[in-house]
UniProtKB/TrEMBL annotation:
Keywords, ordered alphabetically: Antiviral defense, Endonuclease, Hydrolase, Nuclease, RNA-binding
GO molecular function: endonuclease activity; hydrolase activity; RNA binding
Protein family: Belongs to the CRISPR-associated protein Cas5 family. Subtype I-C/Dvulg subfamily.
InterPro entries named in the record: CRISPR-assoc_prot_Cas5, CRISPR-assoc_prot_Cas5_N, CRISPR-assoc_prot_Cas5d
Task performed by this protein: CRISPR (clustered regularly interspaced short palindromic repeat) is an adaptive immune system that provides protection against mobile genetic elements (viruses, transposable elements and conjugative plasmids). CRISPR clusters contain spacers, sequences complementary to antecedent mobile elements, and target invading nucleic acids. CRISPR clusters are transcribed and processed into CRISPR RNA (crRNA).
Keyword Hydrolase: yes
Keyword Zinc: no
Organism (species): Pararhodospirillum oryzae
Protein name in the entry: pre-crRNA processing endonuclease
GO biological process: defense response to virus; maintenance of CRISPR repeat elements
EC numbers on record: 3.1.-.-
């Protein structure tokens, strides 16, 4: 059994990074399904349910801007971090924040707003006390109150997402009437397999991107 929700999200900036561009961040023109799922899961998720994105409505014109910022160029190896944790000291970690900075350029989105249409299915991990109505009520209650397990973001942590529930039966906000081919877009990561990237051909039609369901032939690895 599936249960659907509609969530309006917005923010000052967004960056839904293209995985093929590593050195410089370049955003997709609209949210990826995996980014949209991350926003919803920040509000409510349990192993008993699996969220599926059905459509993304673009409410404002797509606008880009370029920013330049300083980023740390490398990370501390996990083994060294664990050793420092056991010893209770930072000695030997080789922290060189000032010396290891890199200046990078990012192309991001400016002044964004979307409506995410999604549903969830019960998974094999659902227990006897799990049912679709229960989890739907929890999500709606938390979304109405602005509650979340962690702050949802618009692609990257630097850009927090604000959100509100669109009540069942309420009209959807008007999408920005734009249609074009968005090219191949990241659908999700194959977490249950070899963690390869999965893509689909995204089409913006009158401001709406329809997302193919899991297992669809439109999804390619």
């Amino acid at each position: 059994m599936t249960q659907g929700i509609r969530l309006r999200v917005w923010g000052d900036h967004a960056c839904f990074t293209r995985p093929e561009l590593k050195s410089e961040r370049m955003t997709y023109d609209v949210p990826t399904p995996s980014a949209a799922r991350g926003i919803i899961e920040a509000i409510h998720w349990k192993p008993a349910i699996a969220w599926v994105i059905d459509a993304i409505h673009v409410l404002k014109p797509i606008r880009h801007m370029t920013v330049r910022c300083n980023e740390v160029g490398s990370k501390i190896p996990v083994a060294k971090a664990r050793t420092a944790l056991r010893r209770g000291t930072l000695e030997g970690l080789g922290l060189k924040v000032d010396e290891d900075r890199q200046q990078r350029t990012s192309t991001i989105l400016l002044d964004v707003a979307y409506v995410i249409e999604a549903h969830f299915d019960l998974t094999p991990r659902a227990g006897a006390d799990d049912n679709a109505g229960k989890h739907l009520d929890i999500f709606q209650r938390r979304a109405r109150r602005g509650q979340c397990f962690h702050q949802p973001c618009l692609g990257v942590r630097e850009f927090p997402a604000r959100f509100e529930l669109i009540e069942p039966g309420a009209p959807l906000p008007s999408a920005h009437p734009e249609s074009r081919d968005l090219g191949f877009m990241l659908w999700d990561i194959h977490h249950a397999g070899d963690r390869s990237s999965m893509f689909f051909r995204a089409q913006l039609e009158n401001g709406v991107v329809r997302v193919p369901p899991p297992g669809s032939r439109e999804i390619r690895q």
